Amino acid sequence: MTVCIAAICENSQVVGASDRMLTAGDIQFEPERSKLRQLTGSIVAMTAGDSDIQDEILQNVYRDIQARITAEPTNWWKVEDVAELHRKYYNKALLTRAENAYLSPLGLTYDTFITRQNELDSALIRDISKELLNYPALGVSTIFAGKDEYGAHIYEADNGDIRCHNSVGFAAIGAGSWHAMSQMMFAGHTRYKPLPETLLLTYAAKRHAEVAPGVGTGTDMVYHGARLGSILIVGDHVLKKLDDIYKTSRKQIRAASTRAEKRIKSYVEELGKTAANQNQEGAPAGEDGPPPPKNTETG
């Protein structure tokens, strides 16, 4: 359980935020460990779901990224291609677990299951194929955010499904995702909003998501500037200032709500007085007498 949020703003800048809650199997804890993983000078990953599985997948992703950077240092990785790497290694991790569950006990691997199908009973093949296809998803989601030579991008890898959020301009994953998304939508965020507004809104969305079960109170943020390769992990002094501004704005909102509640209470009381002066026909008493009788003549 967690929350991770990314948003694009003016001049193709990117802001991201996450909590520090980690999940390992059925255990949740909040260590002093950031879930923001810088993969290149321009791309960061933010993870949700089982941390052990994420580590397994992202280690492979990072290895492939670094190998190409070493071989082709001027060939900048595209955000979409990094998301596709995650899909590749997610599918590999899923297949390995399905193979261990249903094929290894029979002395088979996925390759031998394919090549030896002529030797196997057709009902067994059908049953095993069904189990392999229905093996449960691993329950991991990742946001890949940053820039490449084509601009700012946000991709979400939800298990093996990849979605692009460039047009919307923001995305969130984890248990607190809907709370965070509602904050972004209510504020009317677009990818053309100013950086200061986006920075505060992203922080507020993370704080808003803390009401969801399993979302931690620790906060990490990342910022990618207008220049390619300018990722910056937001320092504690900036987070402290953001928190002060956020708390001040929350106090102002609560004060405005209190004033509004007093005004609506007065209005409701007026409505109650008006309703008490209604006669049976619905016309206010004392207004030029009762309404005329209804015409009951027929034909």
Structural write-up:
The protein starts with a strand and ends in a 23-residue tail after the last helix. The radius of gyration is 28 Å and the shape is globular. Helix 5 (177-186) runs antiparallel to helix 6. The longest helix is centred in the last third of the chain and has 41 residues, at 236-276. A hairpin with a 2-residue loop joins strand 7 (140-148) and strand 8. A 5-stranded antiparallel sheet has the order 10-1-2-11-12, with helices on one face. Strands 5-6-7-8-9 form a 5-stranded antiparallel sheet, with helices on one face. The protein contains 7 helices and 12 strands. It is α+β, with helices and mostly antiparallel strands and 299 residues long.
